[in-house]
Write a structure and sequence with these properties.
The protein has three helices and no strands.
Length: 61
């Protein structure tokens, strides 16, 4: 299992209240909710698949 990296982020009170609405949908803890939102956004923008494709092309050269 890989090491866990901690990253501190700051939200306004209004942003934090909005994030709390995702409890149960994106996870149960604040960290889990933020992590899942970030990963969902990356997947939606195709950053994940593009990065994997680029790495596969580099490995095949």
């Amino acid at each position: 299992m890989s090491a866990i990296k901690r990253i501190q982020v700051s939200f306004t009170e209004k942003q934090y209240k909005m994030l709390k609405n995702f409890k149960g949908e994106f996870g149960d803890s604040d960290a889990e909710i933020i992590r899942n939102i970030v990963m969902a956004w990356l997947a939606e923008k195709n950053f994940i698949s593009e990065t994997v494709k680029k790495k596969m092309n580099v490995d095949n050269e």
